[in-house]
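note to self: dont lose this again. the chain is below, predicted strucutre after it. 257 aa total, dont forget to put it in the shared folder this time
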Amino acid sequence: MTPTHILITGGAGAIGGQLAGQFRQHHPEARITLVDLNAEALAVAAEQHGAQAETCDLTDIDALPAWWQSLEDRRGPVDVLVNCAGIMDIISITGTGWEKGKRLLDINFTAPMRLMDLALPAMVEARHGCVINVASMAGRVPIRGCSYYGGAKAGIGLASEIARLDLKKQGVNVITVYPGPIYSGLENHARSQVKKGPASRFIPTGKPDVLAERIYKTFRKGGARVIYPDIYSLAKQVANLNLTNRAMDFFSPQPNQ
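---
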């Protein structure tokens, strides 16, 4: 497909910014809208990629429909939705608490689902569109300290895979992305929350520009999913085996709290 309006949440982040660059490079005429809560960083990213900056708190779920309608009135229908915004904390389930836990659920699961709900009717009617959902390998294997984050990413990952089945005959593709750790502000924050040791020091970590390039290539060929770094493909294949659970119990970094 040739996109006309691409919306990327988490547009001020490492992955979102690199994806904006990929789409701008290959589709110079397309409108790109970058969404983030960090207005200052968002303005820099928008200027860099010739995009429109939209500051939005995605945790305000009830406000999203009015914001979406306003956006489409000003910028036109979205035919590529990239749910890339995310936050991660590595804290035990008792240490997280409900307030922080709910925010993790809202940003990583509820907001992407609501945005899909808002974007898909127009895509289905036009029989033209794509949704790219950035899940996580933390939603595929048990990682100590990630009950809320892993649960949310497991939810959006499975919902995304099911949505692809629902929509594949209606002209809308859905791509599910399963990153392992990627050098970014999110990864740096998460790494600061675990005790130092071999598990945290040597865990395979990918580059945001490589991930963005792979996502774009999958978009162009109408593919289903992206797993990166490549070593995590093995974890996906054995995610339902007890062996994986035992291995992650041994190798998971220990949260500080």
